[in-house]
TrEMBL record:
EC number: 1.-.-.-
Molecular function terms, GO-annotated: flavin adenine dinucleotide binding; N,N-dimethylaniline monooxygenase activity; NADP binding
Cellular localisation: Endoplasmic reticulum membrane; Microsome membrane
UniProt cross-references to InterPro entries, sorted A to Z: FAD/NAD-bd_sf (IPR036188), Flavin_mOase (IPR000960), Flavin_mOase-like (IPR020946), Flavin_mOase_4 (IPR002256), FMO-like (IPR050346)
Membrane topology recorded in Swiss-Prot or TrEMBL: Single-pass membrane protein
Organism name: Eschrichtius robustus
Cofactor: FAD
Function per UniProt: This protein is involved in the oxidative metabolism of a variety of xenobiotics such as drugs and pesticides.
Name of the protein described by the UniProt record: Flavin-containing monooxygenase
Pfam families per the UniProt record, alphabetical: FMO-like (PF00743)
Catalytic activity, reaction form: N,N-dimethylaniline + NADPH + O2 + H(+) = N,N-dimethylaniline N-oxide + NADP(+) + H2O
EC class name: oxidoreductase
Segments traversing the membrane: 566-585
Domain of life: Eukaryota
Length: 619
């Protein structure tokens, strides 16, 4: 038997005449060889083999990868180096293990309806934006609901992932793991790398002359957990991403002064938009993408900047984007107020450090700095891969749709979660995992590696020669990227068709927020609850806000409400008619204006009270 035939199940079926049936697997396909009555028969069934998939990491991406494997009848084994699920959402008091995790006060910046697994909405009473521990609870609920925990091997680090000698035929990988000092080795048909986009702290000390002379405390935001220890200190925060903004605001409450240094500046948006609705629900809509395609880019830019400067003028607050730099956006509700109150001072980039001070690009000097916190972001790497795959995977232009490395002749390695999006990373990684598992099964195809390599290499050369802009690190438009992947899977909502079949739903899909449920309406992985989830998404958004129910005459709720609303004026009119004669008699008798008003008020108050009590009972 040729060596490429890897597994063999032999069944001897004996009857009066001898029959032999041998099933064996070749490259993921089931081949059955049978011998009966002197005839040899070979049959071939595509994609019947349950493939073994290694999932590395049990964070947001790893959990969705395990579930997607199960949905496609694949056999996942997940290796997680820590002792729990959730990846960076699992808060720990210290960062001694070097794993990137959230700080204590972190609140999500994508609201719950926009950042949930597409067939598992948050419970309706969860807040729209939630503290990290609440988000972790959701991940735990997801893992328990779909029974994912039993597929995870905790405290197990993946040390190496290497191609098998027959990789070009089988696409298989040798995976070496380490659990509490013990090495193990196993063969997998496919690997999903879910080790996180924020694996290593980016600490660009070489860009800061004199930093080694600085005598104060230096740390990276990966080490930051709580504000204790920074009281009454003069703190310099370097780098204005979401982390820089959050840490500057938090420390401004206790530190003597917070200085926030930025090379670029940033647009700052708030979690609540006009009307108090979560900004993602208002801003991430198909109709906006449609308008953006139609409008000239200069008009679009002008209108966006006008909107962003509406709450406060970024130039006045020292936050405006430096000329020639790529604009960016952070979510922060308090930073403008801190700047307004002087507890955070905006600074340009640092030119040089001395033992105790920092000289800035604009020539200003800040003395007596106690602490420098680098909130300069993270890098990612794949220490367990071998070269040249290891280096190639860190260049995003060599990842087809940011998932499949271009140089592999077999598409059995998928990188999940190495994306920056203008929306939820969770939703993006889930769709990546849905696509990848279908590619593993051969149900979705990707172009051959020669073609992908040629295109990516050409792009790289053009960038090196300065003939093309390198946009690989830019945030991708959420809806465009999601639709692109969904089209590959066959699950992209067909909005025109939906308008014909189900106009109410189509209206919400096109004009309403582009929630992840939209990618479960049709095609493979269709979820029967998707329609209802879309039509009730605003209920779940408003539910956690309505914790104090008060009568609201401006929002009629039911027929009885209408009756009560109209009942009060009718009652008022009737009472006025009944009382008319005696009222005017009394008014005439007393003859004073003040008394007239007080009596009238007395009657009106009684009537109002009746109406008010009637309304209260309806709630
Ligand atoms: C501070 C911060 C706040 C964020 N806030 C938001 C937000 O509000 N909304 C949003 O959508 N996104 C947010 N993000 C983006 C965030 O990256 C995603 O939400 C999501 O957590 C990414 O999950 P992941 O599974 O890809 O990576 P991670 O959460 O980093 O998980 C990777 C897992 O892989 C494990 N691992 C790594 N290497 C190995 C190995 N060799 N062997 C075994 N296991 C390994 C790690 O232990 C970890 O558990 C935030 C990111 C950061 C840094
Ligand atoms: N609430 C939340 O949900 C929340 C909170 C925190 C983080 N996050 C997410 O976590 C991820 C990481 O965020 P992050 O803020 O840590 O990193 P980041 O988004 O990469 O921002 C790092 C910032 O550091 C500065 N910087 C980078 N390289 C530098 C260099 N060589 N010298 C000087 N400055 C440099 C840049 O700011 P300047 O150009 O301004 O200098 C850059 O914007 C993001 O996806 C973010 O959205 C979310």
């Amino acid at each position: 038997m040729p060596t490429r035939f890897l597994k063999a199940n032999t069944t001897m079926l004996k009857d009066e005449r001898i029959t032999v049936k041998v099933d064996f697997y070749d490259k993921g396909s089931l081949l059955a060889l049978s011998y009966k009555e002197g005839l040899l028969n070979l049959s071939h069934t595509e994609h019947t083999m349950a493939k073994r998939v290694a999932v590395i990491g049990a964070g947001v991406s790893g959990l969705s990868s395990i579930k997607c494997c199960l949905d496609e009848d694949l056999e996942p084994t997940c290796f997680e180096r820590s002792n729990d699920i959730g990846g960076l959402w699992k808060f720990t008091e210290t960062s001694k293990d070097g794993i990137t995790r959230v700080y204590k006060s972190l609140v999500t910046n994508v609201c719950k309806e926009m950042s949930c697994y597409s067939d598992f909405p948050f419970q309706e009473d969860y807040p729209n934006f939630m503290k990290q521990e609440k988000f972790w609870d959701y991940l735990q609920e997801f893992a328990e609901h779909f029974d994912l925990l039993k597929y995870i091997q905790f405290r197990t680090t993946v040390c190496s992932v290497t191609k098998r000698p027959d990789f070009s035929e089988t696409g298989q990988w040798d995976v070496v793991t380490e659990t509490e000092g013990k090495l193990d080795r196993a063969i997998f048909d496919a690997v999903m790398v879910c080790t996180g986009h924020f694996l290593n702290p980016h600490l660009p000390l070489e860009s800061f002359p004199g930093i080694h002379k600085f005598k104060g405390q230096i740390l990276h935001s990966q080490e930051y957990k709580i504000p204790a220890g920074f009281q009454d200190k003069r703190v310099l925060v370097i780098g204005l991403g979401n982390t820089g903004g959050d840490i500057a605001v938090e420390l401004s409450r206790t530190a003597a002064q917070v200085l926030l240094s930025t090379r670029t500046g940033t647009w700052v948006i708030s979690r609540s938009s006009d009307g108090g609705y979560p900004f993602n629900m208002m801003g991430t809509r198909r109709r906006h993408n449609f308008t953006a395609q139609v409008l000239p880019s200069c008009v679009l830019k002008w209108s966006q900047e006008r909107g962003l400067n509406k709450r406060f003028d970024h130039t006045n607050y020292g936050l405006n984007i430096t000329k020639g730099k790529k604009p960016k956006i952070i979510v922060n509700d308090e930073l403008p107020t801190c700047i307004l109150c002087g507890t955070v001072t905006m600074k340009t980039s640092v030119k040089e450090f001395t033992e105790t001070s920092a000289l800035f690009e604009d020539g200003t000097v800040e003395e007596n700095i106690d602490v420098v916190i680098f909130t300069t972001g993270y890098t990612f790497s794949f220490p367990f891969l071998e070269e040249p795959l290891k280096s190639l995977c860190t260049k995003k232009i060599f990842l087809y749709k940011l998932v499949f490395p271009s140089n592999l002749e077999r598409t059995t390695l998928a990188m999940i979660g190495f994306i920056s999006l203008t929306g939820s990373i969770l939703a993006g990684t889930e769709l990546q995992a849905r696509w990848a598992t279908r590619v593993f099964k051969g149900l979705c195809k990707i172009p051959p590696s020669q073609k992908l390599m040629a295109e990516a290499t050409k792009k790289e050369q053009l960038i090196e020669r300065g003939l093309m802009k390198d946009t690989s690190g830019d945030k991708l438009d959420y809806i465009s990227y999601m639709d692109d992947l969904a089209a590959c899977i066959g699950t992209k909502p067909n909005v025109p068709l939906l308008f014909l079949k189900d106009p109410r739903l189509a209206w919400e899909v096109f004009f309403g927020p582009c929630t992840p449920y939209q990618y479960r309406l049709m095609g493979p992985g269709k979820w029967d609850g998707a329609r209802n989830a879309i039509l009730t998404q605003w209920d779940r958004t408003l539910k956690p806000l309505k914790t104090r129910i008060v009568p609201d005459s401006s929002k009629p709720a039911s027929m009885s409400h209408y009756l009560k609303a109209w009942g009060a004026p009718i009652l008022l009119a009737s009472l006025l008619l009944i009382c008319k004669s005696s009222l005017f008699f009394e008014i005439g008798a007393r003859k004073t204006m003040g008394q007239n008003f007080s009596l009238l008020n007395k009657y009106l108050a009684r009537i109002n009270l009746l109406g008010y009590e009637g309304c209260t009972k309806s709630y």
